[in-house]
Amino acid sequence: MNEQEKSLSCTFICSRDTYDGAVPPLILSINARRLGMEATVFFTFMGVNVIKKNGVKKCKFIPPGPLGAIPGMADVATKMMKKKMEKAGIPSLEELLEMAQLEGVKFVACKMTVDMMEMREGDFIDGVSIQTAEEYLKQAIKCHINMFI
Predict the structure, then answer these.
(1) pLDDT tens-digit profile of 38-49?
(2) For 134-143, which contacts have Cβ atoms below 8 Å and span 24 or more sequence positions?
(3) Is the pLDDT of residue 107 over 80?
(4) pLDDT digits 0-9 by tens, 10-25
(5) What is the pLDDT of residues 62-76, one digit of tens each?
(6) Quick one: 3-148 is in which CATH superfamily?
(7) What are phi and psi of 12, to 5 degrees?
(8) What is the mean pLDDT of residues 104-118?
(9) Which of 27, 95, 103, 114 is packed most tightly, with the most Cβ within 10 A?
(10) pTM to 2 decimals?
């Protein structure tokens, strides 16, 4: 790995506590780490629920459009999504979260969201740091890739 590759970095923003909100930034950040990049996922608004203790277990897949408004449909769709992921050999959301941490992905909770939702540092899984938007942006401006997913 050359010097430029060592300094490559990326950030991903997760703003939803749904499967389609949490899976993409976790998969991308894991792969970034495997390519030797520094990787951070910034969890904001409802996305902070993903990194709360036992929060990932509450994540659902909510179908888009009118289907998502039908009572019980999110539970059915979540079961279907889990089966599709398993069949395709994709780790579960819980496994992706653990893999990301083991790979060295940094998890950051948005301070404004934490304050607004009246959360505390102890509400989160181990290894989560809390940053202001300004602190995040100071890091992001130096990154090669920034994605809002």
Answers:
(1) 999 999 999 999
(2) 135/111, 136/11, 136/42, 136/108, 136/110, 139/9, 139/11, 139/40, 140/11, 140/42, 142/9, 143/9, 143/10, 143/11
(3) yes
(4) 999 999 999 999 999 9
(5) 999 998 899 999 999
(6) DsrEFH-like (3.40.1260.10)
(7) -135, 140
(8) 97
(9) 114
(10) 0.91
38 Cα distance to chain centroid: 15
Q: What number is the average pLDDT over the span 131-141?
A: 95
Provide DSSP, the chain: --HHHHT-EEEEEE---BHHHHHHHHHHHHHHHHTT-EEEEEE-GGGGGGGBTTTGGG-B---SGGGGGSTTHHHHHHHHHHHHHHHTTPPPHHHHHHHHHHHT-EEEEEHHHHHHTT--GGGBPTTEEEE-HHHHHHHHTT-SEEEE-
**Closest by CA position to 19, among listed 76, 58, 48, 70:** 58
Domain ranges in the chain are: 3-148
Of residues 50, 52, 41, 62, the one with CA closest to residue 143: 41
In DSSP terms, 108 is beta-bridged to: 42, 129
C-beta separation of 29 from 12 below 8 A: yes
Over its C-alpha atoms, the chain yields an Rg (Å, rounded) of 16
For the segment 102-120, the average pLDDT, to the nearest whole number, is 97
Average pLDDT, the chain: 93
